[in-house]
Amino acid sequence: LYQINHHPGIIFPSLAGIEKFKGQYFHSRDYKNPESFTGKRVIIIGIGNSGSDLAVEVIHTAKQVFLSTRRGAWIFNRVGDYGYPFDVLLTSRFQYFMKKICGQSLANTFLEKKMNQRFDHEMFGLKPKHRALSQQPTINDDLPNCIISGLVKVKTNVKEFTETAAIFEDGSKEDDIDAVIFATGYSFAFPFVEDSVKVVKNKISLYKKVFPPNLEKPTLAIIGLIQPLGAIMPISELQGRWVTQVFKGIKTLPSQNEMIKEIAKVREDMAKRYVDSQRHTIQGDYIDTMDELADLVGVRPNLLSLAFTDPKLALQLFWGPCTPIQYRLQGPGKWNGARKAILTTEDRIRKPLMTRVIESNNSTTSTITMARFMLAVAFFAIMITYF
Question: EC number(s) of the enzyme (predicted)?
Fold first, then answer.
């Protein structure tokens, strides 16, 4: 088993004039603290998670921060509707189902509208040409506040550097630049198994993003080499469960030709959906990936069956977040406490926040009860129609 770190190498673009720039410049991997930028004018190149996080941290000491972006980005926030964690709301089977029914275009429109309600991406100079689901999202709650207060100024891509200035592609220029931070991403590699696993332009051929297809026997598996819109560790756990079954001979892999064909199809689909970038070579939809691996392991819950045998659990599986506990209800590795843990998921989400408990409003409770009843009716209609 090879547990991969996504970020062993850095991507450091060569920009015109950088060699004569007299200020400090380095990759974001080498960033330590904001104090070293006190009173300085700083350019951060790149608007991924590293770039945006650096921008909102360095403003506390820097004189001015410029955030340079080539394409722009859609900015997701951590705190979603009603104060719930955004990923809790996003990674539900209901959301996944609606995306499948409505299609990618309508899902993009809905998501972009939600993000623009928070702040207008075009007005803030961040709106990209690509759609919201065509990129790995940038997640930052503080960036719009920093932009609207003038602490962060969004700029186009840097065209070239002089000794003390940066000239941007739109013709604008910023003088007296003291430091440049390249938040331009990372590359991955497999230094211990280079002969078995080839990486070309940050692209790799792995069956189900786990097994190299060219080995005589499946004796090598890569764990965690995926970038989902969701948590990586639950996927890594399911990958590990599947791999151990393959290593034990309980499960077998398809022929080499079949694996290569599927790898090519996955790569083709990824190229159609995502912006062409080294950042988008190992993408995977969270629930799709989890369910696919769960099928291989033999632990995927059957919602249609549960809708009749345990409707309360089925409703939670459909409307609630897709947590890894769902894959402990049955099959290898079954856990007897899984059902209770799933049904109390929302309690554990809310508990840390409720440090001041407020007496509940009966009318609100009644409204919630009625809403849940209507959702239950809709759920059973969906189950009968589509599953």
Answer: 1.-.-.-
CA-CA distance, 106 to 329, in Å (whole number)?
A: 33
Name, in order, each residue with C-beta under 8 angstroms of 250's C-beta and a sequence gap of 6 or more. Answer: none
Read off the CATH number of the domain in which 56 is found: 3.50.50.60
Give the domain-ending residue among 168, 187, 206: 187
Can you tell me the mean pLDDT for 233-238?
A: 95
Taking the CA atoms of residue 198, residue 226, residue 183 and residue 89 in that order, the dihedral angle to the nearest 10 degrees is: 170
β-pairing, 166-168 with 158-161? antiparallel
Residue 13 scores a pLDDT above 60 = yes
Q: Is the pLDDT of residue 386 over 70?
A: no
E strands present in 201-323:
203-204, 222-223, 227-228, 283-284
Burial class (CB in 10 A: 0-12, 13-18, 19+), 44: buried
Q: pLDDT at position 277, please? A: 76
